[in-house]
Amino acid sequence: MFDSRLRPLIDPPLNAIGSALARAGISANQVTIAGAMIGIGAGVAIGFRYYLFGLVLLLASRLLDGLDGAVARATKQSDFGGYLDIVCDFAFYVAVPIGFGFAVAANLPFAMILVASFTLTGISFLAYAVMAAKHSRETAAHGQKSFFYNTGLAEGTETIVAFVLMCLFPQHFAIIASIYAAMCVVTVIQRTIAARMDFPE
Fold it and tell me: Which of 6, 38, 111, 180 could form a disulfide with 97 if both were Cys (CB 3.0 to 4.6 A apart)?
């Protein structure tokens, strides 16, 4: 929901840092993999109830997630880079809820629901991107991407906000996870309606 609105604010500093990393010989894929490993580490830290340390790792991971695209724009964007980026993103999205599920047994059902909702939003996101490519649709609302980014209520920014709240208030994980899972379901419905309108039979 807020991703496209934040792009004009965050892209200039990210692009500047990305250019510096590119000049230092660091590739976009290296940044992507580093971000994923740190993000999975955040899930592990949360699983051991080191919530604030998990929060630090979480934010570091998302910074790298923003920088990999900046490095790619400073060098060369590739289809494999786009593939790697989305796979690593969802590895991170799954790692954090699983961490909370391991941290407290009572969290597990809500963590499973959240992972399931991420699965649905991911499928709707990628299915729409496939259809958009088939119809040669393009958008720059989310910056230069390897494939079409369809908007919705629950996007990257909202996910990070939810994860930050979970780390700051772990005792309320179940409530936050339930609310965000509902937002994900709304997003799937939004994309399904958009697909029905944009790609008629």
Answer: 111
Token pair of 28 as six digits? 């976009």
Place of tokens 């119809």: 135
User: What are the backbone angles phi and psi of residue 143, rounded to the nearest 5°?
Assistant: 85, -175
Range scoring the smallest mean pLDDT among 45-54, 87-96, 123-132: 123-132
DSSP-derived 3-state class of residue 73: helix
Q: Alpha carbon of 149 to those of 5, 60, 106, 121, 181: distances in Å?
A: 14, 23, 35, 12, 20
The DSSP bridge partners found for residue 141 are 143
Q: Is 147 helix (H, G, I), strand (E, B) or coil?
A: coil
Q: What does the alpha-carbon distance between residue 92 and residue 170 come to, in Å, rounded to a whole number?
A: 18
Q: How far is CA 79 from CA 28, 72, 130, 142, 157, in A?
A: 12, 11, 14, 17, 24
**pLDDT 10s digits, 164-187:** 999 999 999 999 999 999 999 999
Centre a 10 Å sphere on the Cβ of residue 190 and count the other Cβ atoms it contains: 17
Query: Nearest-CA neighbor of 152 among 184, 115, 110?
Result: 184
* Residue 199, SS3 per DSSP: coil
Segment 74-109, tens digit of pLDDT: 888 888 998 999 999 999 999 999 999 999 999 999
Say if CB 94 and CB 39 are below 8 A apart. Answer: no
Neighbours of 30 (CB within 10 A): 14
Q: In the chain, which residue ranges form alpha helices assigned H by DSSP? A: 3-23, 28-47, 51-74, 79-103, 108-134, 156-168, 173-198
